[in-house]
Design goal:
With about 450 residues, this protein is mainly alpha-helical. The chain folds into 4 domains: about 80 residues, Rossmann fold, CATH 3.40.50; about 130 residues, no CATH class; about 100 residues; about 60 residues, no CATH class. The chain has 30 helices and 4 strands. Strands 2-1-3-4 form a 4-stranded parallel sheet. Helix 10 crosses helix 11. The longest helix has 14 residues. The mean pLDDT is about 90.
């Protein structure tokens, strides 16, 4: 439809407007020089079905459609209101609202689902929350609900979410729009939470923003300057926390934040040198950083055990650690998920039962080595834990009388389903079998047919 073609003409409205308030609808129609009547007359060119139509109006609309469908156009109020919204002059409206300070009219436009998002954001910036929270008074509740209703996906499945602070958290988790995240961040109740450092539900919203992959750097920087330790810690743990943000976080001198920084994988070299002065942070860095030769040499002198657990170790680095001949370092190497085969064989030559036990738990060991290890009963507990142990050996171990072996099998995701069924009959490990994700998946797929 085209509003210009309706100028100086008459339309019939059954019921009421939906997106626009009654007064605003009348004002918009008057602006476009369209006359609105509630009874049919010969000059009517358009019939509109509005909301809250009475049974009488519905019958009259149906009768008109049967009699005049070839002469008149019939539409729903939603179509007309979307067209009206297209013609709104945003600058004129914003100036009018600013001058009039008409809060009710402003709220009515915020609740109008037909206006564009860009105008919606501008209107929100004009709204005063009166120093109160999202749902602390009726007006704030209506505006909060409008924000959630506008952007929440599948709102019909969770129709009460617009009246809860958790609705903002769900909304943030759903969206991929950085401008929406920034808009929510700038809302007065959240800014007040930042200023006053209050705890509660709003802190959860700030945490959701701090962890969102589309949160802009400007928003994150403001959080670093103003937010609680908890929120800063979440930013410190982001994979895209760049050097500039890392320095800002470090300068906060917050112990929780510094510890979180020390667990990152992409810390700047200057910051590494500073964090190394603290033994606790040095251990975290050695565990989590992606090591190069320079960093390896720094850490091996200070925290070799933690270095041995780092998954980025090269074969040469693992050999250097094994050269230290330190028991704790060897144990840590044995537990490394990227343990090199040649280093594993070297550790087995140490002839330590405890060390061998840890090596045989490592899934990087070849099936041939694990099959050879099965010959020694001392290795059975380790093999029962290892997801790389050959199926036939896991099946054979299910006949063991050792409760530690059976318990390990019950938790191993690679244990054959047939063996898990048998283990389920043993009350000592039945719960562990039920909690095994591989067994749960099998039950869902085979017995019930659920998709996983």
């Amino acid at each position: 439809m085209n509003l210009e073609q309706l100028q100086n003409k008459t339309v019939l409205l059954f019921g009421k407007s939906r997106a626009f308030s009654s007064d605003e609808f009348a004002s918009q129609m008057k602006f476009h020089k369209i006359t609105v009547v509630d009874k049919y007359a010969e000059d009517v060119v358009l019939v509109i079905d509005g909301k809250m139509m009475t049974p009488y109006e519905q019958n009259e609309s149906d009768a008109l459609y049967k009699a005049k469908s070839t002469l008149l156009e019939f539409i729903s109020i939603d179509i007309l209101e979307k067209e009206l919204a297209r013609y709104i002059d945003a600058d004129t409206l914003l100036m009018s609202l600013k001058l009039s300070r008409d809060k009710e009219r402003l709220k009515a436009f915020i609740q109008n689902s037909t206006i564009e998002d860009e105008l919606f954001f501008k209107l929100l910036k004009m709204y005063s929350w009166s120093g109160e929270d999202f749902f602390e008074n009726d007006d704030n509740r209506d505006v909060s609900a409008s924000i959630i209703l506008r952007f929440y996906k599948n709102i019909e499945r969770n129709h009460n979410v617009q009246y809860a602070t958790s609705g903002f958290m769900h909304l943030i988790s759903q969206t991929a729009k950085s401008e929406l995240i920034e808009m929510i961040f700038e809302l007065e109740p959240l800014q007040k939470t930042l200023l006053e450092g209050r705890s509660g539900a709003n802190q959860n919203i700030l945490s959701a923003i701090a962890t969102h992959h589309e949160a802009s750097k400007s928003v994150l920087s403001q959080l670093i300057k103003k937010a609680s330790s908890r929120v800063k810690t979440l930013i410190a743990m982001r994979h895209d926390c760049d050097e500039e943000m890392q320095i800002e976080l470090y300068e906060s001198e917050d112990k929780e934040v510094l510890e979180a920084l020390s667990m990152g994988r992409n810390i700047s070299s200057d910051l590494i040198s500073k964090l190394l002065l603290n033994k606790k942070y040095a251990k975290n860095l050695a565990l989590h950083l992606k090591l190069n030769s320079e960093l390896f040499e720094k850490f091996i002198q200070v925290v070799p055990v933690e270095v041995a657990k780092n998954s980025s170790l090269t074969t040469q680095m693992q050999q250097r650690l094994a050269d230290l001949n330190l028991y704790d370092v060897d144990i840590a190497l044995a537990l490394n998920e990227k343990l090199d085969y040649s280093v594993a064989m070297r550790l087995l030559l140490v002839k330590s039962k405890a060390l061998s036990s840890e090596v045989y738990k490592n899934s990087n060991l070849s099936k041939e080595n694990l099959a050879e290890a099965y010959k020694d009963e001392a290795n059975h507990i380790s093999l029962a834990q290892n997801p790389n142990t050959p199926k036939n050996i896991l099946e054979a171990l299910s006949s063991s009388q050792d409760i530690e072996v059976l318990s390990s099998l019950a938790q191993n995701k690679s244990t054959p389903v047939e063996a898990l069924y048998q283990l389920q009959l043993d009350s000592r490990v039945a719960r562990q079998v039920k909690e095994n994700p591989a067994f749960t998946k099998h039950i869902q797929q085979e017995n019930i047919g659920w998709e996983v």
